[in-house]
Amino acid sequence: MPATALRAEGRQSGRSSALVTKLESVARLTLEDRSALAALSDGSREMGARRNVIREGERPDFVHLMVEGWAARYKLLADGTRQITAFLIPGDFCDLHVTILGEMDHSITTLTRAKVAFIPRSKMDSLTERPGLVKAFWWATLVDEAVLRAWIVNVGRRDAYEAIGHLMCELYVRMKNIGLTDDHCFELPLTQEELGDALGLTPVHVNRVLQRLRAENLISFKGGLLTIRDYRALEEASGFNANYLHITGRT
Amino acid sequence: MPATALRAEGRQSGRSSALVTKLESVARLTLEDRSALAALSDGSREMGARRNVIREGERPDFVHLMVEGWAARYKLLADGTRQITAFLIPGDFCDLHVTILGEMDHSITTLTRAKVAFIPRSKMDSLTERPGLVKAFWWATLVDEAVLRAWIVNVGRRDAYEAIGHLMCELYVRMKNIGLTDDHCFELPLTQEELGDALGLTPVHVNRVLQRLRAENLISFKGGLLTIRDYRALEEASGFNANYLHITGRT
DNA sequence: CCCGGTGAATAACTTATATTAGGAGCAGCG
DNA sequence: CGCTGCTCCTAATATAAGTTATTCACCGGG
Known about the structure:
Two copies of one chain form a homodimer. A four-stranded antiparallel sheet of chain A has the order 2-6-4-5.
């Protein structure tokens, strides 16, 4: 498979930003809207893998936007276990409008090397004066909420096999929506432990399930690269239905 | 315990609506804001227990607001199991701004007899022209999101005992915030099966855990009425921390 | 007053997943 | 080069929770 095509960090450079790509799939943006969004990435900072973007208890002055790389939203429990509640990929806001709530009730860490934009509140305010963007931002938060609900279903009612399959389907659709897939292959830079932290499973159980998914020829997953060998079958096996992602355009 | 005081459907009548009480705990509302909110309850409809408010796939014309009684947000799986992703109590919007997304990706049902306001979109639009209310509504959706994250942690990383305790603490704080508790007692009109559907457990296991919580004198729960006998201990046992509810005023 | 329905309580048994532990492969690094 | 530290993989055992089934208590209706 064409691994290198996906790996390259600059795959999107030259094209529009992931955020623009994502929002254009549901909202009609003006030229000015688009360049205003693109400008957000300008002052973005490079961060190493596994660095804190924000921590629980902090009161961020900025809204953070993923420009490149992956991050995860998580909560730490008293006994040291961790629950990941969201994976953040390029084009995702980490904490849109969180200034309203005051302090963070969870933490965010990068998973890979990443580019994160730190957007001052004043800049956000000027953006939300554009009616088209307000609506697009609303759409984004509502979809985030829908993803959370699907996550609950995953952890609550699906067994490990279905849950892992479901998560992979979701991430595939989201990555495809920002142009970061190549056929049915995309970068999934998660360790088995991180997958477990997302789904409430132990790494050893994740391992067993991955083997089964491979044995059944549904996926191949190695070196941070996931290929869904039989997307239909994986959807079927995991009960995935993309409707909750509310992507209207291309599927 | 003073059951009757809580049971009365009109407990709040004469006072301000649950929505006003809830939003006032975080935002300063003008007199007009308050009366505009109160007016929302005017055209509310009575509904029986276990009736659909909205179903997956529908495209609602209205925003629904819980005025009295309980409801639940849920998803149905192919194998017939159900996962509840939220409990809705008075003052909660069922689907704020959902008109943006198009069709519903989940369903909502009443759990008890309830009063639900059906608010036309135009009315919502006029409300959100008031800056104070926009911010208050934002706060409400952000808290809803935080509740979803806590729910994921509950289902993913806590065992049944902790999860049930945690849910009870959360519901206690939320009910208290809208003035529907009496000391540490409040109406919790959930069957053991519904509790199970919320936490991904079977009713028989929920039963076992409830017995244990009773045996340890942490709660008493009978006839839809929950009394938290030792709130501190329950918080401690379940790892509950109310910070994610972002209630600034009274605790 | 009995009847049917629903929710709660048990019990016996099964199963999915956790726990603990150890080894193998590979990458970065002094 | 040979460390050191991750991931990944595997196995043995333990346990929380599921499954199925039965009984009991309560409540409203005819």
